[in-house]
Amino acid sequence: MTKVLIVLLIALVLEAVGVVFLSRGLKQIGEVEKLTAHEVARVVRRGAANPSILLGVALETIFFGALLYLLSQRDVSLIWPLTALGFVLTALAAKFILHEDIHWTRWLGVALIVIGAALVSYSEKMKHQPLGAARAAIGQSVIGE
């Protein structure tokens, strides 16, 4: 499980930084002003030559490769919810790379995501215990023994 978590953490860091670079690049090339073939082609050309977008796409590609590996190793019901931790890393990357001002309510949402990911991770531990032992562990933690 440790190897899977290390790969997941590295993949999520790459994804978060990739998303930030994609955002930076898209802001650099600007919006489609009119929905014409010429204008769309202009934006596509600028995007295909933008270093931030190219780096972002490369990092996202590595993330998806790692995700394929992770999904082949563990249950999707474990891996996919844990990818939500990428939102935490993306918020941190946006704060420190793009210097975005992040309101406390967003940080609260990020904290809820962390709690949810912790519960999902804990469920993996409980899955490998016999049903009676799992119930006893839950009962002990509730009673405080």
What would your notes on this structure say?
The two termini are 28 Å apart. The chain is 82% helix and 0% strand. It is elongated, with a radius of gyration of 20 Å. The model has no long low-confidence stretch (mean pLDDT 86). The chain has 145 residues and is an all-alpha fold.
Q: Biggest sheet, open or closed, and with what strands and sense?
A: none
Percent in helix: over 70%
Order of helices and strands: HHHHHHH
- Shape descriptor reads elongated
Give the low-pLDDT segments.
none
Mean pLDDT: 86
Estimate what percentage of residues fall within beta strands.
Answer: under 5%
The N- and C-terminal alpha carbons lie at a distance of: 28 Å
Given the helix and strand composition, which structural class is it?
mainly alpha
Contiguous helical run count: 7
User: How many runs of DSSP E, i.e. beta strands?
Assistant: 0
Layout of helices and strands:
Blueprint: H1 2-29, H2 37-48, H3 51-73, H4 76-82, H5 85-96, H6 104-127, H7 131-143
